[in-house]
Protein backbone atom coordinates (compact mmCIF):
# COMPACT_ATOMS: atom_id res chain seq x y z
CA UNK A 1 0.00 0.00 0.00
CA UNK A 2 1.36 3.39 -1.01
CA UNK A 3 1.02 6.22 1.52
CA UNK A 4 1.87 9.69 0.25
CA UNK A 5 1.20 13.34 0.98
CA UNK A 6 2.39 14.34 -2.51
CA UNK A 7 -0.28 15.59 -4.91
CA UNK A 8 1.95 14.90 -7.91
CA UNK A 9 2.73 11.35 -6.85
CA UNK A 10 -0.85 10.30 -6.16
CA UNK A 11 -1.98 11.95 -9.39
CA UNK A 12 0.69 10.11 -11.40
CA UNK A 13 -0.15 6.79 -9.75
CA UNK A 14 -3.86 7.13 -10.55
CA UNK A 15 -3.10 8.24 -14.11
CA UNK A 16 -0.97 5.13 -14.56
CA UNK A 17 -3.78 2.88 -13.39
CA UNK A 18 -6.26 4.53 -15.73
CA UNK A 19 -3.79 4.19 -18.62
CA UNK A 20 -3.68 0.46 -17.88
CA UNK A 21 -7.47 0.29 -18.05
CA UNK A 22 -7.98 -0.09 -14.30
CA UNK A 23 -10.96 1.52 -12.60
CA UNK A 24 -10.22 3.75 -9.63
CA UNK A 25 -12.51 3.90 -6.60
CA UNK A 26 -12.11 6.74 -4.12
CA UNK A 27 -13.14 7.18 -0.49
CA UNK A 28 -12.53 10.70 0.90
CA UNK A 29 -12.32 10.71 4.71
CA UNK A 30 -11.12 12.73 7.68
CA UNK A 31 -9.66 9.63 9.34
CA UNK A 32 -10.21 8.25 12.85
CA UNK A 33 -11.75 5.17 11.28
CA UNK A 34 -14.58 3.05 12.60
CA UNK A 35 -16.44 0.19 10.93
CA UNK A 36 -18.59 2.65 9.03
CA UNK A 37 -15.56 4.10 7.24
CA UNK A 38 -14.22 0.64 6.52
CA UNK A 39 -17.55 -0.38 4.97
CA UNK A 40 -17.12 2.47 2.45
CA UNK A 41 -13.71 1.09 1.52
CA UNK A 42 -15.13 -2.41 1.10
CA UNK A 43 -17.83 -1.08 -1.23
CA UNK A 44 -15.23 0.79 -3.28
CA UNK A 45 -13.06 -2.33 -3.48
CA UNK A 46 -15.98 -4.43 -4.71
CA UNK A 47 -16.51 -2.08 -7.65
CA UNK A 48 -12.97 -0.96 -8.53
CA UNK A 49 -9.66 -2.46 -9.54
CA UNK A 50 -7.79 0.07 -7.39
CA UNK A 51 -8.92 1.94 -4.27
CA UNK A 52 -7.58 5.27 -3.04
CA UNK A 53 -8.48 6.62 0.39
CA UNK A 54 -7.73 10.20 1.37
CA UNK A 55 -7.24 11.20 5.00
CA UNK A 56 -7.54 14.95 5.42
CA UNK A 57 -9.17 16.90 8.25
CA UNK A 58 -10.60 19.68 6.14
CA UNK A 59 -10.48 23.01 8.02
CA UNK A 60 -12.88 24.81 5.69
CA UNK A 61 -15.87 22.68 6.68
CA UNK A 62 -15.58 23.53 10.39
CA UNK A 63 -17.18 26.61 11.91
CA UNK A 64 -15.32 28.86 14.38
CA UNK A 65 -16.93 27.21 17.43
CA UNK A 66 -16.69 23.63 16.19
CA UNK A 67 -14.25 20.83 16.99
CA UNK A 68 -11.47 21.24 14.40
CA UNK A 69 -8.76 21.52 17.05
CA UNK A 70 -9.82 18.35 18.83
CA UNK A 71 -11.04 16.26 15.91
CA UNK A 72 -9.55 12.78 16.46
CA UNK A 73 -6.41 11.90 14.48
CA UNK A 74 -5.10 8.32 14.28
CA UNK A 75 -3.11 8.15 11.05
CA UNK A 76 -0.92 5.16 11.94
CA UNK A 77 -3.85 3.03 13.06
CA UNK A 78 -5.95 4.18 10.10
CA UNK A 79 -3.25 3.06 7.66
CA UNK A 80 -2.96 -0.30 9.40
CA UNK A 81 -6.68 -0.88 8.98
CA UNK A 82 -6.60 0.16 5.32
CA UNK A 83 -3.69 -2.14 4.56
CA UNK A 84 -5.74 -5.06 5.89
CA UNK A 85 -8.40 -4.19 3.29
CA UNK A 86 -5.89 -4.18 0.41
CA UNK A 87 -6.26 -0.48 -0.28
CA UNK A 88 -3.89 0.49 -3.11
CA UNK A 89 -2.99 4.02 -1.98
CA UNK A 90 -3.62 6.47 0.84
CA UNK A 91 -3.39 10.19 0.18
CA UNK A 92 -2.61 12.25 3.30
CA UNK A 93 -2.13 15.82 2.06
CA UNK A 94 -1.12 18.76 4.22
CA UNK A 95 -3.40 21.76 4.36
CA UNK A 96 -1.05 23.80 2.16
CA UNK A 97 -1.22 21.09 -0.51
CA UNK A 98 -5.01 21.20 -0.73
CA UNK A 99 -5.18 24.97 -0.22
CA UNK A 100 -1.94 26.56 -1.46
CA UNK A 101 -1.26 30.21 -0.67
CA UNK A 102 -2.82 31.45 -3.91
CA UNK A 103 -5.96 29.27 -3.64
CA UNK A 104 -8.97 31.46 -4.44
CA UNK A 105 -11.77 29.19 -5.67
CA UNK A 106 -14.86 27.89 -3.91
CA UNK A 107 -17.56 25.47 -5.08
CA UNK A 108 -21.05 26.40 -3.91
CA UNK A 109 -24.13 24.21 -4.38
CA UNK A 110 -27.19 26.37 -3.73
CA UNK A 111 -30.61 25.24 -2.60
CA UNK A 112 -29.99 21.66 -1.54
CA UNK A 113 -27.19 22.71 0.84
CA UNK A 114 -29.04 25.55 2.56
CA UNK A 115 -31.38 23.80 5.00
CA UNK A 116 -30.76 21.27 7.78
CA UNK A 117 -27.02 21.15 8.54
CA UNK A 118 -26.46 23.98 6.08
CA UNK A 119 -28.66 26.31 8.10
CA UNK A 120 -27.02 25.57 11.46
CA UNK A 121 -23.45 25.18 10.18
CA UNK A 122 -22.94 28.18 7.85
CA UNK A 123 -20.24 27.54 5.26
CA UNK A 124 -19.98 23.84 6.10
CA UNK A 125 -21.10 22.50 2.75
CA UNK A 126 -19.07 25.06 0.83
CA UNK A 127 -16.04 23.55 2.54
CA UNK A 128 -17.19 20.02 1.74
CA UNK A 129 -17.87 20.65 -1.94
CA UNK A 130 -14.69 22.63 -2.45
CA UNK A 131 -12.41 20.03 -0.88
CA UNK A 132 -14.16 17.20 -2.73
CA UNK A 133 -13.81 19.05 -6.02
CA UNK A 134 -10.08 19.49 -5.34
CA UNK A 135 -9.63 15.83 -4.39
CA UNK A 136 -11.66 14.65 -7.38
CA UNK A 137 -9.45 16.76 -9.62
CA UNK A 138 -6.30 15.17 -8.18
CA UNK A 139 -7.48 11.54 -8.09
CA UNK A 140 -9.88 11.60 -11.08
CA UNK A 141 -11.75 8.52 -9.81
CA UNK A 142 -14.32 6.50 -11.70
CA UNK A 143 -16.43 6.26 -8.56
CA UNK A 144 -16.48 7.70 -5.06
CA UNK A 145 -18.24 6.29 -2.00
CA UNK A 146 -20.07 8.39 0.61
CA UNK A 147 -22.03 7.23 3.66
CA UNK A 148 -25.79 7.61 3.93
CA UNK A 149 -25.50 8.80 7.54
CA UNK A 150 -24.51 12.18 6.06
CA UNK A 151 -27.58 12.18 3.84
CA UNK A 152 -27.48 15.87 3.00
CA UNK A 153 -23.78 15.70 2.17
CA UNK A 154 -24.48 12.77 -0.16
CA UNK A 155 -27.20 14.72 -1.95
CA UNK A 156 -25.03 17.84 -2.22
CA UNK A 157 -22.08 15.90 -3.67
CA UNK A 158 -24.34 14.19 -6.18
CA UNK A 159 -25.71 17.57 -7.26
CA UNK A 160 -22.21 19.02 -7.66
CA UNK A 161 -20.96 16.05 -9.67
CA UNK A 162 -24.02 16.21 -11.92
CA UNK A 163 -23.94 19.99 -12.40
CA UNK A 164 -20.22 20.10 -13.17
CA UNK A 165 -20.31 17.00 -15.42
CA UNK A 166 -17.51 15.40 -13.42
CA UNK A 167 -18.30 11.93 -14.74
CA UNK A 168 -17.91 10.24 -11.34
CA UNK A 169 -20.33 7.61 -10.09
CA UNK A 170 -21.32 8.56 -6.53
CA UNK A 171 -22.09 5.39 -4.55
CA UNK A 172 -24.14 5.50 -1.34
CA UNK A 173 -23.07 3.26 1.55
CA UNK A 174 -25.63 2.17 4.19
CA UNK A 175 -25.38 3.43 7.77
CA UNK A 176 -23.37 1.14 10.06
CA UNK A 177 -24.60 0.99 13.65
CA UNK A 178 -23.37 -0.11 17.04
CA UNK A 179 -25.19 -3.13 18.58
CA UNK A 180 -27.51 -0.75 20.48
CA UNK A 181 -28.39 1.15 17.30
CA UNK A 182 -26.20 4.26 17.61
CA UNK A 183 -24.87 5.26 14.21
CA UNK A 184 -21.11 4.91 14.11
CA UNK A 185 -19.27 8.24 14.13
CA UNK A 186 -15.75 9.41 14.89
CA UNK A 187 -17.36 11.84 17.33
CA UNK A 188 -18.90 9.07 19.44
CA UNK A 189 -15.63 8.87 21.36
CA UNK A 190 -16.37 12.34 22.78
CA UNK A 191 -19.40 11.01 24.67
CA UNK A 192 -19.37 10.51 28.43
CA UNK A 193 -20.76 7.25 29.79
CA UNK A 194 -24.16 8.82 30.48
CA UNK A 195 -24.27 10.54 27.11
CA UNK A 196 -23.33 7.34 25.32
CA UNK A 197 -26.04 5.41 27.16
CA UNK A 198 -28.70 7.93 26.17
CA UNK A 199 -27.44 8.46 22.60
CA UNK A 200 -28.85 5.09 21.52
CA UNK A 201 -32.30 6.69 21.91
CA UNK A 202 -31.65 8.58 18.67
CA UNK A 203 -32.01 5.38 16.65
CA UNK A 204 -34.83 4.23 18.95
CA UNK A 205 -36.71 7.43 18.09
CA UNK A 206 -36.19 6.92 14.38
CA UNK A 207 -37.53 3.39 14.67
CA UNK A 208 -40.52 4.67 16.65
CA UNK A 209 -41.37 7.04 13.80
CA UNK A 210 -40.97 4.24 11.27
CA UNK A 211 -43.23 1.98 13.34
CA UNK A 212 -45.89 4.69 13.44
CA UNK A 213 -45.66 4.99 9.65
CA UNK A 214 -46.04 1.23 9.33
CA UNK A 215 -49.35 1.41 11.24
CA UNK A 216 -50.63 3.70 8.48
CA UNK A 217 -49.68 7.19 9.64
CA UNK A 218 -48.67 9.49 6.79
CA UNK A 219 -48.61 12.86 8.59
CA UNK A 220 -44.96 13.81 8.94
CA UNK A 221 -45.55 16.10 11.92
CA UNK A 222 -46.78 13.12 13.91
CA UNK A 223 -43.75 11.07 12.88
CA UNK A 224 -41.44 13.87 13.98
CA UNK A 225 -43.29 14.07 17.29
CA UNK A 226 -42.84 10.32 17.77
CA UNK A 227 -39.10 10.82 17.48
CA UNK A 228 -39.10 13.73 19.94
CA UNK A 229 -41.24 11.82 22.43
CA UNK A 230 -38.51 9.19 22.63
CA UNK A 231 -36.01 11.81 23.83
CA UNK A 232 -38.21 13.30 26.57
CA UNK A 233 -36.68 11.26 29.38
CA UNK A 234 -33.08 11.69 28.14
CA UNK A 235 -31.74 14.87 29.82
CA UNK A 236 -28.37 14.60 28.06
CA UNK A 237 -30.00 14.81 24.62
CA UNK A 238 -31.21 17.96 22.86
CA UNK A 239 -32.64 17.91 19.35
CA UNK A 240 -31.23 20.59 17.07
CA UNK A 241 -33.51 19.70 14.18
CA UNK A 242 -35.95 16.94 13.28
CA UNK A 243 -37.17 17.12 9.68
CA UNK A 244 -38.84 15.00 7.02
CA UNK A 245 -37.39 15.66 3.57
CA UNK A 246 -37.21 14.38 0.02
CA UNK A 247 -34.02 12.25 -0.20
CA UNK A 248 -32.89 13.89 -3.45
CA UNK A 249 -33.79 17.55 -2.97
CA UNK A 250 -33.70 17.83 0.85
CA UNK A 251 -36.93 19.84 0.63
CA UNK A 252 -39.46 19.41 3.41
CA UNK A 253 -42.33 16.94 3.12
CA UNK A 254 -45.49 16.96 5.26
CA UNK A 255 -47.56 14.09 3.86
CA UNK A 256 -45.83 10.88 2.80
CA UNK A 257 -46.66 9.74 -0.72
CA UNK A 258 -43.13 8.92 -1.89
CA UNK A 259 -39.93 7.90 -0.06
CA UNK A 260 -39.01 10.35 2.71
CA UNK A 261 -35.98 10.74 4.95
CA UNK A 262 -36.49 11.51 8.60
CA UNK A 263 -33.27 13.39 9.35
CA UNK A 264 -32.16 14.51 12.79
CA UNK A 265 -29.33 16.34 14.50
CA UNK A 266 -29.11 15.82 18.25
CA UNK A 267 -26.67 17.13 20.83
CA UNK A 268 -25.56 14.56 23.38
CA UNK A 269 -24.03 16.93 25.89
CA UNK A 270 -21.77 19.06 23.69
CA UNK A 271 -21.36 16.44 20.96
CA UNK A 272 -23.45 16.87 17.85
CA UNK A 273 -24.71 13.63 16.29
CA UNK A 274 -26.65 13.18 13.06
CA UNK A 275 -28.75 10.26 11.90
CA UNK A 276 -31.61 9.44 9.56
CA UNK A 277 -33.97 6.73 8.44
CA UNK A 278 -35.62 6.15 5.06
CA UNK A 279 -39.38 5.79 5.15
CA UNK A 280 -40.76 4.17 2.00
CA UNK A 281 -44.41 3.61 1.07
CA UNK A 282 -45.10 0.28 -0.57
CA UNK A 283 -45.44 0.53 -4.33
Secondary structure elements and their pairing?
Elements: E1 2-4, H1 7-19, E2 24-29, H2 35-47, E3 50-55, H3 75-84, E4 89-91, H4 95-98, H5 117-120, H6 124-139, E5 143-147, H7 151-163, E6 169-173, H8 193-199, H9 201-214, H10 220-230, E7 237-245, E8 260-268, E9 271-279
Parallel strand pairs: 1-4, 2-3, 2-5, 3-4, 5-6
Antiparallel strand pairs: 7-8, 8-9
Features:
single chain; 283 residues; alpha/beta; Rossmann fold; Pantoate--beta-alanine Ligase, Chain: A,domain 2; 2 domains; six-stranded parallel β-sheet; three-stranded antiparallel β-sheet; 10 helices; 9 strands
Distance between the termini: 46 Å
- Which CATH architecture of the largest domain? 3-Layer(aba) Sandwich
Quickly count the helices.
10
Low-confidence runs? none
| Number of beta strands | 9
Rounded to an integer in angstroms, the radius of gyration calculated over CA atoms is: 19 Å
CATH topology of the largest domain: Rossmann fold
Strand fraction: 15-25%
The rough form would be described as globular
Helicity range: 25-40%
Major beta sheet, specifics?
Answer: 6 strands, parallel
Structural domains: how many: 2
Amino acid sequence: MIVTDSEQRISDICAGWRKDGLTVGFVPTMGAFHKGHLSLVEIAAASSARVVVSIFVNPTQFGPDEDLDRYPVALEEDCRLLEELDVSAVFTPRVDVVYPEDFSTGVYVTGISEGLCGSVRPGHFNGVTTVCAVLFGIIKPDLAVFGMKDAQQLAVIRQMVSDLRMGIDIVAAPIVREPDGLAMSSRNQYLSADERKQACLISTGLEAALSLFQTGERNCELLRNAFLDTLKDAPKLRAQYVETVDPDTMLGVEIIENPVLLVVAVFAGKTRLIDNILIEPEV
